[in-house]
Amino acid sequence: MAETDLNQTLQMSFGDEQEEMSVAERMAAEALIVDVDGFEGPLDLLLTLSRTQKVDLRKISILELAQQYLDFVERAKRLRLELAADYLVMAAWLAFLKSRLLLPPDPTEEGPSGEELAAHLAFQLERLQAMRDAAAKLMARDRLGRDFFARGVPENVERVRKVTFTATLLDLMQGYARLRTRDEFRPFIMDRDSVFTMEEALERMRGLIGYAGAWTDILSYLPVGWENDPKKRRSATAATFAASLELAKEGKVFIRQSETFAPIEVRKRDGRDE
Amino acid sequence: MSDDINASEPEAEVVEQVVEQEESLFEAPPVAEQERMCEAILFASAEPVTVKEMNDRMPHGCDAAEALVHLRKRYEGRGVHVVKVGDAWAMRTAADLGFLMQKETVETRKLSRAAVETLAIIAYHQPVTRAEIEEIRGVSVSRGTVDQLLEMEWIRFGRRKMTPGRPVTFVVTQSFLDHFGLSSPRDLPGLKELRAAGLLENRPPPGTIPLGVNSDEDDDGMVIDDGQSEMFED
Amino acid sequence: MSDDINASEPEAEVVEQVVEQEESLFEAPPVAEQERMCEAILFASAEPVTVKEMNDRMPHGCDAAEALVHLRKRYEGRGVHVVKVGDAWAMRTAADLGFLMQKETVETRKLSRAAVETLAIIAYHQPVTRAEIEEIRGVSVSRGTVDQLLEMEWIRFGRRKMTPGRPVTFVVTQSFLDHFGLSSPRDLPGLKELRAAGLLENRPPPGTIPLGVNSDEDDDGMVIDDGQSEMFED
Lengths: 274, 234, 234
What we know:
Helix content of chain B: 40-55%
Radius of gyration of chain A: 47 Å
Number of strands of chain B: 6
Oligomer: heterotrimer
Structural class of chain B: mainly alpha
Helix content of chain A: 40-55%
Number of strands of chain A: 4
Number of domains of chain B: 2
Strand order of the largest sheet of chain A: 2-4-3
CATH architecture of the largest domain in chain B: Orthogonal Bundle
Radius of gyration of chain B: 22 Å
Distance between the termini of chain A: 113 Å
Order of helices and strands of chain A: HHHHHHEHHHEHEE
Shape of chain A: elongated
Strand content of chain A: 5-15%
Low-confidence stretches of chain A: 1-19, 183-191
Shape of chain B: elongated
Largest interface: A-B, 44 and 51 residues
CATH class of the largest domain in chain B: Mainly Alpha
Number of helices of chain A: 10
């Protein structure tokens, strides 16, 4: 612990007060006036303080310990030592614990008793000490690279990657078929599924156009079931448009569009147009 | 220490042989030969090697686990030992001969007290959350401390705790076991005594105790210690 | 196991003791112990170690040279050997176990389109020259593709064609037939069957010859073997 180095600096600023103390007092003070940064938090400080009681951690007097801690904090305050908030929180809590331990239990009061709280604190101290001892035992073990050693020239395991290629008879047949057609082989039916041809559109429109005495959006000629799927809708729209042009060319219909992107409309050409 | 191997061997062998009869045209090499193979594999590697990896590298039908039993015995009392490191095996020089080795080894960064304590807490309480570590140490754990241990590959993230917030846990690694010459976390010094004394329990504090840790997190993590006991029970 | 050592121990010890009385306050460790030391040093050293270096590192009165004789004998026939490297000594894995230092991973990949097409042409038209393959595919055939198929042992060189330049031909192999489950190249489905299977049922691009008719092959200027044309007449 970094107690010693900071002791001196602390003591210099501590001057006057020390002069008033007896030697014994001063010794005690020196033991406690330490660099707060040297502690790993309030629990660590409590553990250090508990050592002065020189008893089994299970038999420690929490009351006495609380008083020691409070004295320490008091002293640090006199030294105008900046204490971290958690040290002060612990001080407040210990003051509360002290009062609980000293006063007869108030039956109306909720929450754990002073004894329970003290027991838990004792447990925490014991556990922290146990972990420190365990850490020390761990670090004292024979260690790799210090006491025992691994192979000095490890041999690398060479990774041999073997790639095997494979193909199926179907791959072979498809490959050959592709060559014989000079075109990418694609299943036929899938392709035609969402294609609406102009011939089909023409046939459909010829049947319906007789009823189109008024201007009608060509989109109303899309076959049933082709309006929703975007692929089908595109194909049917294109085919219907092409069929409309064809009908216009044949002189069967008039076709118009009021502006760009406006609906394209057709109307039957009839007697009144002659 | 090798009970776990012996225990599972008989069945393993039966399975192996059945598979073999179907799959392999060649008989597995004799056990003495398998032992040589394990010896060469372990000898050549600075890192521990798992039984599975050995089996993968050895010819079909070999049983590295069995060969290891023989190999280990052969190296008993020698200048080099066959040691178990977690699920894996390694060859290491005998610790009593450390004085012979040139101390040219790179001086490892000295671990801070905080790092050493954090490491011990993780080893003994694993899987453990950051909040639990803080509860035990009574002080918040700095990022740097955990990062250093992660970087040294002595700890790694374990599975998340099934508590509110699902906090991550830390566990020790194979490198940790290797470094400290432990064949399993169960071999940690004093583990049994600590457990018997109840010092590895996560005892919830009566009411709220302000031990420098954000207590809300504590409540989450604290309740459970199944994971920890699981880890060490066999 | 340690008989060889014990045998030579008594004399060694006598010699040792004489030297010692003059030079050392401590007795040299027994030979068996010296052997352990050599073992550990050789195992852990990154470089081969000379006898002098070993003696310098071992306690006073040790004789590394003698210990090495025993150590070397101990490792005879093992998976690891003690070998002399120049003036120095080292431990090495046995040469016959070198295969263990490799980890083979087998990856299966699909044959490239170019390779499949080339293979298909060879299978359907064999024996076929490279020029003919290129004619059918409409692109030049890379050396790599043919080499790959040769290496896979799916094709081999056939007899030379009795045409100007006497070009080599390619034919498929028995391995090819085995892989594709064919008893002869004639088992390959003909064009009619391909069409029946829906594989050729594509709209013919404008200007191409109708499919499934083998007249186009003749038009191509292909030199067609009897065997091959037979294949498509059914």
